[in-house]
């Protein structure tokens, strides 16, 4: 609840209550008082390069796990391991045209129904973040009067719900692998005009493919108009984005963390200590756990060529990606970290790196699998039920290395003076303050109502304690495609192509090359649906609302 100037007695009451609290002394404005801080940075994963001709998308397997023991609230933001897929150019890359696909597993400040289990977002970025798209019905902000990527992603699968808060995994996932990748499909035709202007739009429909324990196959795709839309006002940029360009095959692989809660305090001798929220990683007792596996780049012959021929009267294709048109990146067991601990007062406190390699050693578990081995005297293993999870050091002391550079060195809890108060700070499980429902437009004349759904409403209660409401739309009539700068004739042609996919591409067989290590994670079983009778082909489920379940 915000404190306002209209209630000074409320503020005074809070102050008196705080002063009577056992935590008041440690929060006083002296050197020994713990001050709020954070840990943030990148984990860097070097890998081999592949030939530039493998420019038609990628796939990879990444571990999913609860990074923090307790979800601390909406300040927390971190991805797990992932990548950035940019357009490939002939020669030098043009300047000031940032645009890519950079989604993956993680937690974000705008996640409303977060738990310790990560969610997946698609993370498409239009020109210089003018818009972004995280999934069907999920874009930049939540203002449907000014959509900015909200209509950028079309639902393709008839078997999976996509909540606007992100694609849920099964609660309790702890180190299993999620296989995902983006490959282009020729679902639309190239256009010579865009939004009535004489700039072209390509026909690369970059499609998310998943490989999980309970679902396999394509889920959703970015409409080409999402990438080309900015060129309507900037025609000099036409043809430079992912609607028309191939993908850069040699992408960075990193784990980007923006905020893990922490505290910093000094003792009477002037030594500085820090404590971070209990942070976890997969870690098998017998050695490293796979964190990244099977990172692969593809040529168009892997899928596009066969599908394009099929759409023009050729033989049906299974959807299985051809490994003969693939190149796998390898790992050499090197890597780095830029994680730092610091307060908001950077004038007083430097951003100092932690001594990551003192407790984590990067390793190539095999030439296509990356992980860490943990220093057993520094990490803590959980109970037998969670033997594959380790907790990293919580306490650090500010020291200097042999070259005189400051660093945070991991220390035992017993090495931290009690006077710092760090032993008393807590990192409890919190619920995000913003749990407002996601609600799509309900006006009778909106694209959500005209042409409108063919069946519904239906409900599903998810593992994150939210409830989604969804309807079944004819594929070409879903709101994203009503806003994709397509004519009625173009949408009907797209409808026929997707009906071919629905008849032939089932959810019970491999599309991406299967992993050779680890176990596959499951998506939330509540997200798996079956089309109503008569709507099995050419219809898709579209979520129109997501809200906290009653009593939650």
Question: Could you explain how this protein is built, in words?
Answer:
8% of the residues lie in helices and 30% in strands. It has 552 residues and is mostly beta strands. It has a domain of 372 residues. The strands form 5 sheets. Strands 1, 3, 6, 7, 12, 16, 17, 21, 22, 23, 28 and 29 form a 12-stranded antiparallel β-sheet that branches. β16 and β17 form a beta hairpin.
Summarize the structure.
With 552 residues, the protein is mainly beta. The chain contains 5 helices and 33 strands.
Distance between the termini: 18 Å
Report the total helices: 5
Strand content: 25-35%
Please identify the structural class as seen in this structure. Answer: mainly beta
Q: Count all strands and give the number.
A: 33
Shape category? globular
Please bin the fraction of helical residues: under 10%
Q: Averaging pLDDT over every residue, what do you get?
A: 92
Q: C-alpha Rg, in Å?
A: 25 Å
Q: What oligomeric state do the depicted chains represent?
A: single chain
Main sheet makeup: 12 strands, antiparallel
Contiguous uncertain segments of 5+ residues: 1-30
